[in-house]
Design goal:
It is a single chain. The chain is of the alpha+beta class and about 160 residues long. The chain is about 25% helix and about 25% strand. It is built from 3 helices and 7 strands. Strands 1, 2, 3, 4, 5, 6 and 7 form a 7-stranded mixed sheet that branches. A hairpin with a 4-residue loop joins strand 2 and strand 3. The chain starts with 10 loop residues before the first strand and ends in an 18-residue tail after the last strand. The structure holds tetrahydrodeoxyuridine. Keywords: Hydrolase.
């Protein structure tokens, strides 16, 4: 038996003012996106903003449904929309913010497992490293590469052996 280790690396910024300008603009857009979410069941409004390789910015937010599993997270709403419109353009950066009962969350909001999986494939598809920015009142985390978010990920390579 051996014990292996995987390390995650990310940057921590104390607040939005410390961020480079392009990241700051994207976080502000993610915050703005939360206000258009449809979250009557959880009151948890999530917003995502994407910066594409060609400079385009796309936003999205969570869309809930009375049949709960039919809803969709903000990240996937934004990613699928952007990829449907620009299938050949890399998503370079995604910023994610959340408001609970009208307040920006204290802690950073982390994408759920399903969103991490989709982030992973969007990154792989573009052959580019994607930067993931997690927004929160206490701090903002900047993760360079989805590998630093989901180190054990299903890449789909295994499907080629079936
Ligand atoms: N949600 C997101 O939109 N993104 C996440 O990363 C986590 C959760 C949404 C799903 C649901 O509408 C609400 O937040 C509460 O789980």
């Amino acid at each position: 038996m051996k014990i292996a280790e995987k390390k995650l690396q990310y940057k921590i910024y104390c607040n939005i003012e410390e961020l480079p300008d392009s990241y700051k603009a994207l976080v502000l857009r993610a915050r703005e996106e939360t206000q258009k979410s449809y979250a009557p069941y959880s009151q948890f409004r999530v917003g995502a903003a994407l910066l594409l390789e060609n400079g385009a910015v796309f936003g999205g937010n969570n869309q809930e449904n009375a049949a709960y599993p039919s809803g969709l997270c903000a990240e996937r709403t934004a990613l699928f929309y952007a990829q449907s419109q620009h299938p050949d353009v890399a998503v370079n950066v995604i910023a994610i913010s959340a408001f609970f009962r009208n307040n920006l969350t204290q802690e950073t909001i982390k994408p759920c497992g399903a969103c991490c999986q989709v982030l992973s494939e969007v990154e792989k598809r573009s052959k580019n490293i994607m930067t993931v920015i997690l927004d929160g009142q206490d701090q903002i985390e900047v993760i360079e590469g989805v590998n630093n978010l989901l180190p054990f990920r299903f890449s789909g390579e295994e499907l080629k052996n079936i």
